[in-house]
Amino acid sequence: MYRNEIPETKLLPRGTNAITAIGSPIVSRGTFKATIRWPTGYNSNSKSINTTFHVLQNLKQPILSKKTQKALGMLPAGYPHESINAITKEEQRKDPGSIFFPHLMASVVINPTEERKKEDLKKLTEEFPRIFDGVCRPMVGPACHFKLKEGAIPMAIRGSCPVAGPLMPRLKKELDQLEEQNIIRKVTEPTAWVHPIVIAAKKDGDIRVCRFYDPQR
C-alpha cells in the first residue's frame, strides 16, 4: 500500500520488533510521521493527532493502534471498560426479564443487601408459587426421544453403591416422591443399562439423588 499510495514519502530507518499472534516476525520497512484527522461528530469538527506510522511488509490495509484510537476519540479513554456518554429517560422495556419480573427489573441494584435479596426472593416465590413448590412436573411439549448410538455397549454395575443406614429412610422417601411425580419408574426385571446413584445433602437437611455416569468408576 505504501508503494502504491505514497512512495515519495521518505522512510526513517526505525522499525518495530514485533510478532504476529502465531509467532511469525513482523518485518518493518521503516517509519514516517503524519497527521491523522477523525470527525468527532460535533458541529462537523474533526480531531487530529500527529503520530508515527510503521510500514510493515505484506500488510494489506492500515491498522490503528488502540492508543491512537483513544487519542482520536474512536474509543473511550477507559476502554475496554464501559463509559456513560449520556443519560436519557428509558422507554418501557419489552424484554422477557422485564415482562415476567417487572418488580425485579424496575430498578437495578448493584451489590444488593441481604434484606433486599430476601425481599426479591419472597416476591418471586409468591408470584410464581407453582414453580417453587418443590414439585417437578412434566415439561410442556412433545415427548423427548433419545436415539442410542449404533453399536453402543451398555454399562452395568455389579452392585449398588453403599448408602449409609441413617440415610435409607430419606432415600426411600425421595425415590417414592420421584416415582409419584413420574420422573422415574420402578424396574422389576433385569436391564442392560444400570447406573449407580450418589446421595448429595442439601442445606435444609434433605437429600438429592444424582446419577453417576462415569464408567471408569
UniProtKB/TrEMBL annotation:
GO BP annotations, alphabetical order: DNA biosynthetic process
SUPFAM superfamilies named in the record: DNA/RNA polymerases
InterPro entries for this protein: DNA/RNA_pol_sf, Retrovirus_Pol_polyprotein
Name the record gives this protein: Reverse transcriptase domain-containing protein
UniProt source species: Daphnia sinensis
